[in-house]
Specification:
There is one protein chain. This protein has eight helices and no strands. The chain has about 180 residues and is mainly alpha-helical.
């Protein structure tokens, strides 16, 4: 997705990168076939718009004046947090129960590793690597989720899922080979 958006800024992806993006997207579609993804028009639109928005932001961020180092990550996370807090207040979200200690620990784990470490690493890659390489995590994450679901939660691994994961990993190889 980001490769196509980079073209809008005059930086078209190479042939291997285009193939990697196409194969990876096809693998993600294949991985989701047969799943319980049909949740109505609004959730479907959100699933389509959110990765396009993320890709546009990834490409555009390379052209915007941003704070240096970790301050860039902090500024982006604070702005995103304020916007999401505004939306949650607007639609009336409120905590229904007091979270359990396990839920609080999970929250802090996600704050530290999912947000601070993960997003900082993503920002570093985005500044120092091609956007398609930096955003290849979007292809790898579903593969890891399916594998962990199979290993830890006893979920069924269908032949279609194995084929899709092979396509996705092949796409990541194509993306990493492009110079």
């Amino acid at each position: 997705m980001d490769g196509a958006l980079r073209g809008l800024f005059g930086q078209w992806p190479g042939r291997a990168e285009r193939w990697g993006l196409a194969v990876g997207f096809g693998g993600i579609v294949l991985l989701n076939l047969g799943g319980d993804m049909g949740g109505g028009l609004l959730p479907t639109l959100a699933m389509l718009v959110s990765p396009m928005s993320w890709a546009l932001g990834s490409v555009w961020s390379r052209r915007l004046p941003m704070p240096q180092g970790l301050m860039s990550t902090a500024a982006q996370m604070l702005c995103g947090g304020v916007v999401m807090l505004g939306f949650s207040l607007l639609i009336g979200e409120r905590p229904a129960v007091i979270p359990t200690p396990k839920a609080v620990l999970a929250f802090f784990y996600l704050v530290v590793f999912g947000s601070l470490v993960g997003y900082s690493a993503y920002g570093y890659l985005l500044r120092n690597a091609r956007p398609s390489l930096a955003t290849s995590y979007a292809y790898v994450n579903p593969v890891l989720a399916v594998l962990l679901g199979g290993l830890l939660a006893g979920e069924t691994m269908t032949p279609t899922a194995w084929l899709a994961m092979g396509a996705i990993l092949g796409a990541v190889v194509l993306l990493t080979r492009e110079k």
